[in-house]
Design brief:
The protein has 247 residues and is mainly alpha-helical. Helix content is 52%, strand content 2%. Helix 1 packs antiparallel against helix 7, helix 3 packs antiparallel against helix 10 and helix 9 runs antiparallel to helix 10.
Length: 247
């Protein structure tokens, strides 16, 4: 019997992989580099930079990055750019902007983006590229460069969105699914409550506009301040979303 429809797939939680702080930062920077749009002439350098660091990582994570590198080199930069647009720009569940999964394209989006901007400032960084602060590669770069609990809070409070993204990319048979899985391996274990929210979000998709306005966002909006920061930095460090260096 032919089946024309099916429910979106929800993946099993990733395996737990022990990582030290340096390895976790390496994974996050690698994913930040490779999840950004492959602007013409940039992909080979990004692939080389990540490949040079694979030997420092546990095999479970390294193999995912290595597989992406292999696919990207076989397909070539132009094909990867076309695939990137097809997947991330044209599929509702394959969105790299984390607040889309929590508030969707609703009137809460502005407040959610402001919360991300304030979180970056609390960690001592500011945007140095024309990109939104909830862009996953931006948050991953912040985590890799700062090691700050602010970045941990942003990733943890948007875990459901990251898991929906991982499932959607796997469903699309995209090589980018392995990059998001590698990131997921660096995050805390998924408990049953989080798993249930992931299943609901996969089934229903991101929120749509509702009548009325509430001041409460569905994730923490007060930046977590690092114990070593007594106040906002006077000169925030710039944060870009597509560095071609792993340092």
């Amino acid at each position: 019997m032919v089946s024309f429809v099916r429910a979106p797939r929800v993946l099993e939680a990733p395996v737990e992989v022990p990582l030290d702080a340096s390895q976790r930062a390496t994974v996050h920077m690698a994913a930040a580099l490779l999840l950004d749009y492959p602007v013409e002439g940039t992909l080979p350098g990004r692939l080389d930079a990540v490949e040079a660091e694979l030997g420092r990582l546990p095999v479970e994570v390294a193999v995912l990055l290595e597989e992406f590198i292999g696919v990207a080199r076989r397909r070539g930069e132009r094909a990867m750019a076309e695939h990137y647009v097809e997947v991330f720009d044209r599929r509702r569940r394959c969105c790299l902007y984390l607040t889309y999964y929590t508030v969707g394209d609703t009137r809460h989006r502005g407040a959610a983006l402001l919360a991300f901007k304030q979180a970056l400032a609390a960690a001592g960084y500011e945007m140095a590229a024309d990109e939104l602060p909830d862009y996953l590669p931006v948050v991953l770069e912040l985590s890799a460069r700062s090691g700050d609990e602010v970045a941990d809070a942003l990733l943890s409070s948007h875990r459901e969105g990251i898991e929906v993204l991982r499932s959607a990319l796997a469903d699309a048979a995209s090589p980018y699914a392995g990059l998001v899985e590698a990131v997921s391996m660096t995050l805390p274990r998924i408990d049953e409550a989080t798993a249930e929210r992931v299943r609901a979000l996969v089934a229903a998709g991101p929120p749509t506009e509702t009548v009325g306005v509430t001041s409460t966002l569905p994730f923490p909006s007060v930046p977590v301040r690092h114990p070593n920061l007594s106040g906002p930095p006077t000169t925030p460090a710039p944060l870009t979303d597509s560095q071609e260096s792993m340092t």
